[in-house]
Amino acid sequence: MAGEPQPDCLFCKIVSGEIPATIVRETETTVAFRDINPQAPTHVLVIPRVHHPDAAALAAAEPAIAADILREAGQVAADEKIVDTGYRVVFNTGAGAGQTVFHAHAHVLGGRGLQWPPG
């Protein structure tokens, strides 16, 4: 069921502490941790503690938590000192867009020039 932890979800296991991660921030509704395959000098994932398969599903079901993710993405950028040089917040939605873990999450990327359009 949406919102409930899923036993086969990597990110649900990180939220529960079952799988370790390099956590950089935590709130009541979110967890932010370093990506294990960084695509930029700063690459942090911000996830909701509740399980929803993608950003669209999260926003439809729990818009306040979707807003929390964006707020935390900005705080991660500030903590990582990439606000002045610029950063990108990316939500991949669906396998065709590169989503590989089907638990809503934002990528915070920065610390180098980010080309447009992206890959």
Automatic annotation (TrEMBL):
Motif Histidine triad motif: chain residues: 103-107
Gene Ontology MF: a single term: catalytic activity
Residues of the HIT domain: 10-119
A Pfam match: HIT
Annotated active site: 105
Record-linked Gene3D superfamilies: HIT-like
PANTHER family in the cross-refs: HISTIDINE TRIAD HIT PROTEIN (PTHR23089)
Protein name: Histidine triad (HIT) family protein
Organism (species): Streptomyces atratus
Lineage per the UniProt record: Bacteria, Bacillati, Actinomycetota, Actinomycetes, Kitasatosporales
